[in-house]
Amino acid sequence: MNWGGLLLVMILLSSLVPGLIIFALPEKSNRPRTFLNLGGAFLKLLLILVMIIGIYKGRHFAVRWQLLPGIELALNSDPLAALFSTLSTVLWLLTTLYAVGYLEQSPNRRQFFGYFSICVTVTVGIALAGNLITFLLFYELLTLTTYPLVTHRGTREALAAGRVYLAYTLSGGAVLLVAVAWPQVLAGPVDFGGQPVLASVAATHELQLIVIFFMFIAGLGVKAALVPLHGWLPRAMVAPAPVSALLHAVAVVKAGVFGIVRIVHDVYGIGFAAGLNLLLPLSILASVSIIYGSLCALREDDLKKRLAYSTISQLSYIVLGVSVAGPLAAIGGLVHLVHQGLMKITLFFCAGNLAETLGVHRISEMNGIARRMPLTMAAFSVGALGMIGFPPMAGFVSKWYLGMGALATGKMWVVAILAVSTVLNAAYFLPILIGAWFKPQECTWSEQVVAVRLETRWMLLVPPLVTAFLVVTVGLLANAQISPLAWVKLIVGREFGP
Amino acid sequence: MPDTAFWAVCLVVVPLFFALICFVRSDQAAVLGLLAAGLNALAALAMTVFFVRSGPLRYAIGGWQAPLGINFSIDGLSVLLVAMTAVTGLSVSMYARGYFSLRIGSAGEINRHGHQRAFFWPVWLLLWGALNGLFLSADLFNVYVTLEIIGLSAVVLTALSGKPAARLAAMRYLLVSLLGSCSYLFGVALLYRSYGILDMAALARLISPAPLMWASLALLTTGLLLKTALFPLHFWLPPAHANALAPVSAILSGLVVKASFYLMLRLWGDIFAQVLPFAAYVLLGVLGCGAVLWGAVQALLQKRLKMLIAYSTVAQLGYLFIALPLIRLDPGSSAWEAVILLIMSHACAKSAMFMAAGSIFLKAGHDRIDDLAGIKEVLPISSFAFVLAGVSLMGFPPSGGFVGKWLLLGVSLAGGEWWWGVMLVIGSLLAAGYVYRVASRLLVFKVTFFSRRQSIPPVMEWSAVLLALLALLLGLLAGYPLGLLEAGSPFPLHACREVMP
Q1: Which residue of B445, B475, B476 is in closest CB contact with A154?
Q2: What is the distance between the alpha carbons of residues B331 and B415, in angstroms, rounded to a whole number?
Q3: Domain contains A350
């Protein structure tokens, strides 16, 4: 194995090993567990940095493991992989900190943190997967490892949500399995990051390729929560806040979206997919999800469920950006992969803080809450305003590029969708902000955190503040050389380049 | 100088020899049994090493040639199945030692469990020797002898538990097994009448369509299908496997049914492959589909854990039969490889599952699925083993079951008969359903669980979890066992034919 390949394997092991050790540790050893978690997270971040620097210098990391002739597992570090794995790693670090604070005194932490670490391993595995079968491997493993987290509380409601979750994702996985096996039969192994291979068999197998594409979308659409495959996501909100934050705003749902990006960019190729007329149905599907998700969010009074519906809507921006088939829109879509992650995790952290500190779960209970928890609500407001698309937040940058891309390809209806969606976003976020900041307190909260100097425990407070800070920063410094936007431009430049 | 043939003979002789000693010295049975298991594993390892070095081999024991003597034919398929038996058998033996000492230690009635142990070891070693003999035999009559020993010792093992339900199941098993053997023996006799020879490799060259040949093939196949419990001939399997003692269930479900399927592979995949019409394979494939659906639906409906696992065996055997038409369809060797992977993966996973279920049964005092919530707190490792084994049975990556399913899916799509592939995928979804039924109870966190006070020996928990882990990692390491197939011979009997004297 070469050194570059070893680096990729180390990136995976840096969270897998702590996860396995945590399972072996007794329930009571909290300090070693926290140390392992944070140590693993920092190590992973460091390794990812090494990888990114390597990629900047033009190096290419890859490693392969042959199971059988024709079946290879491959890890690969193309820029898109780096984008997603960096996002996951940074947010894992913050979420670990948050989870340590959030689950203080709660039972069964060993299981929680064990699966949590393995989940991150699997998510980064999805990011680094170098071909379709490796992607499938990690994608399926993600289903298994997130199930115990969704049902962590073990209540009847949590188990029911877990059942729905498994039913959706396993069925999606089954469809995806056929979709992954089929192109392999037609065109041999499908690697990511190189030239899309399917175009070579287009002349003889056009119909099959179209069918395969929609099977891919159906399989991946479950985790990406495309309407009408989104039913599991709002229910899965019974999970503890850190799980919702990392897995249901970033890891699981992004795995689906990331897969769709891979399929369109690396398996079919944008030009070829557009040539087969596959992208218009996809963008219609995304538009429906955007509008439907927002409409559902308007109706929800439960804060986490409103955020979940908002996720359904926001994720489809990414799909929309990819399927509009122009470089600018692709930039908007891909950069939203990062931006949406940052904003949504901020919102979930804050929602968790409200629930954990004051027992507040419903939006109708939130009036006047900003006076009690100003820092949390400030972070929340940054996230919410970003989602709506206020400049200079991150969300504005995404929407700007999406809109420009739609204009550049002459798709006025996409601009209209964006406009309607922005209005809807404002309609379901602004009332929360107005209520929290400007209305008097209406109901009594049950204070659950006692005797702390800050508005809540510092471990709960720091992560949302950091992510909120990042939301503003990546927006303000979007043109800097190390911003996500610059990285995405690099990716898209290669895809659409000469 | 020991060589492949020496170790092959050891593989048959050592278990039989120790079976005898165990029978005589029943007070030392467990130690002797474990010793035999260890020696057997060593012999299997040594044979594999020599096989890799020197390739496939035919060996006439004592120099007596085919019509009179006993001939061994050692090719990749035999070696793999012998190795699978060695690994699974070793784990089950270790588990059984813990199992019997726990039961003898905890129960007041020492006699009953002492008797069980006294009979378990010799019969199990006899069965083991016969399994090895079956996989290594070169001719169909020796196979009959081993098949008969396997059937009878399996029946004895089933009846060992002594409960009325087990006795009834064993009786039914006995009748089915005898019927199957008779049918098989008639088939062999007819073949001998037509060709005057029973050597498999020689038969494969001589076979030509004739009424007698069809009759003998029908008889052979019926006998084997009865013993393999292909739907709708599976009726005897669930009660027998579910009511036996835990180590016995693991042996029956993991290994015994594979023996008759191995013969199906030899007959349908090689010896009769040239004359059989594709439609016959399709018929078996359709029955396999029926098994997958029926077994899974029944498993979903069961209330008892061991019944669920037994029905899952019915479903998983269906997979193997679905693979038969695909083997015929496949120009390359991937369908073959897939079947072998599925066999090995199922042997490990299913044995591990029964072992874990046995520990759960002993600890909880029952195996009602609905009342198992919270057992994770008292038996974390066994619960984990069960879930791991379940993940393999579902065909989740990176298990051996997944790679097998993937290869078969590829063959079915490439051959244009995609419905077989779709059936496999539906089958694994159903498997996910019944595994989930149990896993959702096992994984749930609950503070109190009312269990018996006896503590399960660690060896019982760890042997199960290691076996389950092996099934799960088999996919990642698939290249090694399957490389064995290609090292010696691209495909089982085809290459053996070339090295015949």
Answers
A1: B445
A2: 9
A3: yes
- Please tell me if residue A151 touches chain B, with a CB cutoff of 8 Å: yes
pLDDT in tens, A457-498: 888 889 999 999 999 998 888 888 778 888 888 888 877 764
Give the number of domains in chain A. 1
Q: Dihedral of CA B240/B245/B246/B248: which sign?
A: negative
Check CB contact of A177 with chain B, cutoff 8 Å. Answer: yes
Looking at the predicted structure, is the pLDDT value of residue B489 above 70? no
A105: burial class by Cβ within 10 Å (0-12, 13-18, 19+)?
Answer: exposed
**In terms of CA atoms, which chain A residue is nearest residue B426?**
A174
**C-alpha span between B253 and B88 (Å, rounded):** 11
In a domain, A326, yes or no: no
Are the beta carbons of A68 and B478 separated by less than 8 Å? yes
Q: Which of A1, A495, A44 is nearest to A274 (CA)?
A: A495
CB atoms B479 and A162 under 8 Å: no
ipTM of this model? 0.89
A39 interfaces chain B, CB cutoff of 8 Å: no
Q: CB of A290 within 8 A of CB of A421?
A: yes
CB contact under 8 A, B406 and A140: no
Q: How far apart are CA B356 and CA B362, in angstroms?
A: 10
Q: Is residue A392 part of a domain?
A: yes
Assign B452 a pLDDT band (cuts: 50, 70, 90).
Answer: confident
DSSP state of A455: S
Kindly state whether residue A378 falls inside one of the protein's structural domains: yes
As a whole number, mean pLDDT of residues A168-188 equals: 90
Q: Supply the range of the domain harboring residue A430.
A: 339-498
- pTM score: 0.92
Q: How many CB pairs under 8 A join A and B?
A: 76
Is residue A197 over pLDDT 80?
no
C-beta separation of B492 from B266 below 8 A? yes
Query: Among A68, A110, A115, A131, which would you mutate to test the B interface (most chain B Cβ atoms within 10 Å of its Cβ)?
Result: A68
Q: Assess whether pLDDT exceeds 60 at residue B490.
A: no
